Every structure is written in structure tokens, then in C-alpha cells.
Amino acid sequence: MGLQSKLTELLVPPELKAHFDKVEKPVGDAGYDPWGFKLENAKAAMAAFRWIHDQYFRVESKGIENVPAKGRALVIANHAGQLPMDGLMIGMALAMREKSPRFARAMIERFFPTVPVIGNWLNSVGAVIGDPVNCEKMLERDEVVIVFPEGVRGSGKMYKDAYQLKRFGNGFVRLAMQYDAPIIPVGVVGSEETMPAVANLKPLAKLLGVPYIPVSPPFPLPAKFHLNFGEPIYFPNDDASEDEMTERVEQVKAEIAKLIDKGLKERESIF
Amino acid sequence: MEIMVTGAAGTLAKHVIDQLRDAGHSVVACYFRDALELDNRERVTSYRVDITKRGFEDVFRNHKIQAVLHLGRITTTQDRKANRRYASNVDGTRKLLELSRKYGVKQMVILSTYFVYGASAYNPALLDEEAPLKASVLDKNLIDMVELENLAHIHMFQYPELHITILRPANIVGPHTQNGLSLQLSREATPYLLGFNPMMQFVQVEDMADAVIASFKGNKPGIYNVAAEDWAGYQDALRMAGCNMIPVPSIPPGLTNLIADLSPKLGLNAFPRYLVPYMKYPVVIDGSKFADTFGWQPKYNIEQALAYYRDKKQFKRAS
């Protein structure tokens, strides 16, 4: 405990500390929330990743005020780039925004909790395994949850399919309806170029029990990120059929496609 | 009112009995631990009795019992033989349920545990009471706990006139608690699994006694998790309890289980194999339904509840 506090103090400069103090986060007396989130760890991680956000990917965010200052929300984005850099950058952008910064939660692959050290660390900075119950309980507790409805279909795709949206799962719309949560669509541009993949080594991935192993640069390239946050979308909590639900999902998907186009037009160069 | 309390030799039951007496009830205290003799105090009649045996019925014949608080359970720390625990816990509970019906008992509170949910890597946090009970799939040592609950569920469904309340508390800790986890906390040197720090919840034994009394008074049958809005990692808990922490390899899992099995022989502090998954993966329960229904508020937070272990160790070292 002492070590972590020292590390946080070392990593988080005073101005950033003042900034993070604006974040409201419900934790118990022992400093944790039910998913193992720990404010100190999250602050230290954000401070360490700030360089990646500011200098490496030079993230430019527009419309970030569309994420409400308080209360539950679902941030829905396109997923790409093999590693979840897009989730990390959206989370960073929300934590670093000047007015009412927020520490968002991201849903991660189910195998992470079985990995020693990494699993707990991811939890401590805000990641949670992608179980619908987790998402429900987080919305109940007024969290901002980042969801990539394409899942590994999106993150693991080949570069030839860059910026083409894969199939979206329907779950997020059901949850948004059930919990009266606004959906904030985000178009991420830049993620595809961080790790352009030309092939997937499926047999090896299967052997190792991971979703995919791409043939790509071994580390993320410094592509410039453009995050375009759209207007919040609300759906009524009615008794919508699965078909109507799919229509609503398509509506969000179309909005994200528009935001991606906007980002692609705005961008002057890839790097 | 005459109220039967089982497991009366346990520390939780002692707190519960005190509160019942203070409220003016008469208590029929049943226990089965050899070494102990309970005094018969005013308004407390004690029986050292095996609830699986026929003689137990006499207790019902001799008293007009209106409520049963079933807190007695043979724990894995008291008897390592799974079949003996099964006989006592499951068959004993069946007997108790049958006699309660036969003698017109109106209300029953049954102590279960959050262990019934089972520790798995895929557990979401804040499990509701409706979450599946996976403990028996993960470890046969926990079968009796799940079966005990299943029995109670059947009775709830078939005999709604007997009001049954099942409580599934988080780890009960504090002076004289004897469960698997509280024993780990009371040790000088305690094993933990390298790279794993699962979230845990704790209920101080006095707070738990309040919870039992609240559910008895409230008499709202159903199944309830009992836990506060406070969470800490297992390693944090060991630190708060002042334990010297002994790292145990966590991969491959077979190695951890082997160390657990051999630990008593190796002269290490023993940690039973059934505890391994709970030292690795979180079982975080949502206690809001209980707190809202019965207006229960714990007095102790985790730090305060675990301070008892730290202070006791410091006192021992100093003396």
C-alpha cells in the first residue's frame, strides 16, 4: 500500500493531481470498488500513459463534452488495431478533459482474470471482464462504460478492411434501454494504422488460447488519433422486439460510420 | 417467544443469543461440539445434541419453539471428511426442517455462505441472489453447503407457511470466528497466491449477529446476500490483519493444489485446497437487497474488522 502511494506521488505531477481530484469515483473505505478499481493505481497509470496520449498518438478529441458530466453513459466506438489502444485513448481523453473529467470503465476479454498480475492490474485501473452483469451493475452505479460492440471481429481485422464496421452485437442497446443510459457514439480514426495486419496466424492463436495473432508491426506505430464524439442517442425503455433492437443498433452503427468519415476527412496525414 | 438457536457453541450464535435474551425471548440453545459445556443462564436452555439423531425430537417435544435460527454447521476446518460433513450438515438440516414443520415452527433463519457461488475467473462482480451456485461444480468439498441450500429452497417452495430466510454472508471475521478464511487471517504467516489479489468482502461477527436478528425480526422470507459496500483485495486484507505474507506459486494450477495438499506435511501453514480458487478469483456479492429490506448497516468497515487480528498479533509479540 505504501509503495503504491509513493509510486503515485512520483508519477502524478501536482497539476495533474489537482485535475484528478475533480474526478468523483465511488469507492469503499478500503479504497476499492467492487471490480477492484483503485483510484491510486488509476491515477498513476493515467499519468504514465499521458505521454502516449499527448505525444505518441497526439490524440485530437472533438465533441467530448457529449459525454455527460455526471451519471451513467455508454460510449460506443469502432474497434481496430489488434491491441486495445482505442479503448485506452478514449479512456485517457475522458480522464484528461478539462471540464468534469471522468474515469471510464472498459470491458475486456474474459481470459484476462486468469493471467497473474496483469489481470488484477487491469482491474485496478478500471478494466472489467465483458460480462453483461458487470455492465448492468456499472450502469446502476452511474459509471461511464466503453463498449466495442464489434469485439474481436473489429480489433482483429485485416488492414484491407480498415474502417469498415463489422457486425455489432445487440447487447449494448438492450442495456442502454433498460438503464435509461445515453449512448455516445465515437468514431475512432488512427487505430487502424497503429498495427496494420496482413494475416492472422489462426492455428498458433488457437494453440495459445488467444483470439488472434496478427502478422503486423511488432508494436503500435505512432499514427495520429482523431476521436469524434457524437451527440448522445437515447432509446425509450419499451418492449422492443429483437428486430427493432437490431434497427436501433444499425442506427448507432450508421452514426459511428459518419463520425469515422468525418475523422478521415479531417485528417491531413496518417502519422 | 421460544426460539431455537443451533450452533450455539459458535461465537456468532453467542452474540445472537445475547440479543434474543435482551429482547425478552427464551432461547433453546443446541450445540454439538464436544469440548464445550454451555451454562444454563436465565431464559437459556442448552442441549448438547446431535441434530441428525432421533433424540433431537425431544427438544421440540419439551418446548414450544416458534422460530429456529439455524446457525450450526460443521465447517471444513472442524472436519476434513466431506462425507461426515454432508451427513451432519445436509441430513441434519433436513431433519430440522421436518421437525420444524411437524411442531408448527413459524419461522426459520438459515445461515449459508457466499462460498456457494463458487470462485471462478468468469464471475461478474456484485452477484445477485439469483446468480447460479457453482461451488459444488468447482470443488466437491463444498457440496454440502450447496446441498443444504437446495434443501431449504425446496422447503421454501413446498411449504410457504414456514417462513424461511436464507442468509449468504461474506467472510465472517472477528474474535473467536473459526471459518477457513478467518483462520488464515489469525495466522502469523499466511499464504497468498503470487499475482492474484481477488476482491473480498468481510462482515464482522457482531454485525452478522445484527443481520441475523434483523432478518428474524423483519420476517421477510427469501434469500439474501449479506455484505457491506466495502471491498479489499485478499493481499490488502492480509496486510490489514498484520499477517506475514508467504507467496505461493499460482501457475501451473496443479502446483498450487499440490502445495495446498502437502502444506500441513511441509510444516507450512496449511491452506485447504477448496480455498485456493477463493484466493485467486473474486466472489463479490451484492448485499443491497438485504440492507434495503431489513435496514441493516454494519458498524465495522474492513479495516476496523481486521484490526482485531493485527492488534492480537502485536499484543502476542509484545508479551
Identify the notable features of this structure and list them briefly.
heterodimer, A: 271 residues, alpha/beta, seven-stranded mixed β-sheet, 11 helices, 9 strands, B: 319 residues, Rossmann fold, seven-stranded parallel β-sheet, two-stranded parallel sheet, globular
Average per-residue pLDDT of chain B, rounded, comes to 92
CATH homology group of the domain at 2-177 and 202-228 and 284-299 in chain B: NAD(P)-binding Rossmann-like Domain
What summary fits the major beta sheet of chain A? 7 strands, mixed
User: What name does the CATH topology of chain A carry?
Assistant: Glycerol-3-phosphate (1)-acyltransferase
Q: What percent of residues of chain A adopt helix (DSSP H or I)?
A: 40-55%
Write up this protein.
The complex is a heterodimer of chains A (271) and B (319). Chain A has 271 residues and is an alpha/beta fold. Helices cover 41% and strands 13% of the residues of chain A. Chain A is built from eleven helices and nine strands. With 319 residues, chain B is an alpha/beta fold. Chain B has a domain at 2-177 and 202-228 and 284-299: 3-Layer(aba) Sandwich (Rossmann fold), CATH 3.40.50.720. Chain B has helices at residues 11-22, 56-62, 82-102, 135-138, 143-158, 180-186, 205-218, 234-240, 253-262, 276-280, 288-294, 302-318, and strands at residues 2-6, 26-31, 44-48, 65-70, 107-111, 163-169, 171-173, 189-193, 199-200, 202-204, 222-226, 232-233, 244-248. Chain B has a seven-stranded parallel beta sheet, with helices on both faces. In chain B, strand 1 (2-6), helix 1 and strand 2 (26-31) form a beta-alpha-beta unit. The longest helix of chain B has 21 residues, at 82-102. In chain B, 50% of the residues are buried. The mean pLDDT of chain B is 92. The chains are: A alpha/beta (271), B alpha/beta (319). At the A-B interface, helix 6 of A face strand 12 and helix 8 of B.
